[in-house]
Every structure is written in C-alpha cells, then in structure tokens.
Amino acid sequence: MEFRRRKTRPVHVGKVGIGGDYPVSIQSMTSTSTKDVTATVAQIRRLEEAGCEIVRLGIPDEESARAVRDIRRETLLPLVADIHFDHRLALICLESGVDALRINPGNLRKREHVEAVVAACRERSVPIRIGVNGGSIDRTKYSHPTPEALVDSALGHIRILEEMNFFDIKVSLKASDVPSMVEANRIFAAKTEYPLHLGVTEAGGLIQAVVKSSIGVGALLLDGIGDTVRVSITGDVVQEVETARVILRSLGLRREGVEVVSCPTCARKEFDVERVVNELTARTADVRKYIRVAVMGCAVNGPGEASDADIGVAVGKTDAVLFEAGKIVRKIPREGILDVLLSEIRNRENSRI
Question: Burial level of 164, CB count in 10 A (0-12/13-18/19+)?
C-alpha cells in the first residue's frame, strides 16, 4: 500500500534530502558529552551502523561548540547542532562544518543575532530546524501546551526567518502527550509546506517509548505527514534507530533488514519460539537487504499462515520443515532450526533474489 505524501518544500542536511520526494529519514541524538570527542564519535559510529542517517549534537556551551570541528573530521554523517539562546554557539558550529542548526530564532536576544546566524546559514546552504515543545509556547497567551499553542509558537519563529527571506526551514512540533503531538502536526501540515520532523518527546523508557512513538509517528505517517523521524528513548540511542527502522518498515516506507514473522506461542508450540526469534533478530541486525522470515511454533500456524514470508520454518513433534513463499522445501532437524535460517538469510543477503 502506498501513501500520498504531503507536499513539502525540500531541504538538504548534508547529503540527506528531507521533504519533497525524498524518503523519510531516520535521526537520533548523541547522549555523550559533546566535549568528549572520542566518546561522541564512537557513539556516532554505532548509530550509523544501526542505520541512522542524521545525528544531532547537544551544544550547551562554547567548549562543546569548539569540539564540533574535531567530530566533523571523524564522520561523514550529517550533523545537526542543537543550540538554545546563544547565537555565538551557532556561528562556531557553522564554522566547524555542521550541516543544520536546531535553533529557535525567537529565543535569541537581539535581531542582529538572528541576522548573523541567518547570513552564515545562507552562505553555507545550511537549513534551520525550528523545534517546538511544551517549553516553547508563549505562557502569556497559553496556560498549557495545547496543539494550537505549539503551532502558534512554530509559526511565530518561522515568521522571523521569512522576514529575512530565509526559507530553508524544517519544523518539529513535539509533545509527550501523543494526541496533542499528532493534532499539532496535523494542524501545522494543513497551513504550510515546510517539511516536518516527527517525534514524541520525553517518551520514557524502552517499552513505553516504543509504544508512544509507534502510535504518534505512525499515525502521522499513515496520513502522509512527516519527512524525517526520531524515536526518543531513555536508554541506548541505538534502540531509537532500530525502532524507527521497524516503524518505517511496518508502514511499507522502508524495505530493509530482516523482518521476523513469528507466532505469539500457545500450548501447541513444539519448541522455544521466543529463544530462536530473539537470537535470530540479534544475529541478523547487520542485514540491510529486506528478507521476511517466519518462525512458526507448530504445524497449524505453518506455511499456510506465513505464505508471504520469503523463508520460514514450522515445527512438528518430531521434525521441522523449511518453506519458501509458502511451499515446503525440505525437512530439517529441530535442533538445527536457527543454523538453517541463518544460512538461508546470509545466502539471500549475498544473492540477487
């Protein structure tokens, strides 16, 4: 199934196009101190290996801003500098080679500061991401962060840049409350053609964050809204990328990696389905080619129910069968299920099938 994407004006963050006809991209943010160049570069490499396409760096002070130059030398991945209030940090990061800024112009102290940042961005063809959340709204107008308040805040920041004839803008409207986040993005999408960065902010630990992000980001992508995403998780940042990849793959917006189809298990299961699925998933995390693999715990939920899988196994009381596209290929020993699947996956990964 294909979704009609909302029409947006494209921008480029380094080599990654956002908006227009470009595919939805995956972002994350380093959790290391940016001043620690070694640790930050190591984390960026882990994120890149997991499939991250854009990385944001927190820039709380001048020492962090100065460190960006050294980080830039160590990675080709597009870098976004996340800056609040101090325009000097933005200028240092631009001189150091960042590919985008996350900065709200309305939070800078003076108009000439905004003009200096805009001039430097224009000179380097660097876009600005306006990021709005519950802390960004005008409390003199709104008592709490309603969807309308988030949109109004974003439009206010945008007007400042538009008055300076700067339009290389992308926008995020985030909230920890999923319905508010979804509604804010829908309202904004109907008003402008600026590309949207999607995410549920402060989403919590792994399970809660995965659920909230899947609902919020997924609902908008199903509407054709959203050009780049970040899943926010309190934990290992690599899990953010892995979750985002699964969300996009589940919606048909990405066809990459090993998708495991497995039964939820019941009294009919003839082997430890959970163990095989967990190990299979962990040992194929590096695969980028799209391969749909079924692991079915009994003969009832076997080749028939998983007929759309590229390869799969179904297990009976005495042996198991390997099937391809719903057709049984051969019997295999029960104790060799994992090894057979891994071998088949690697064969397909290296073939043109």
Answer: middle
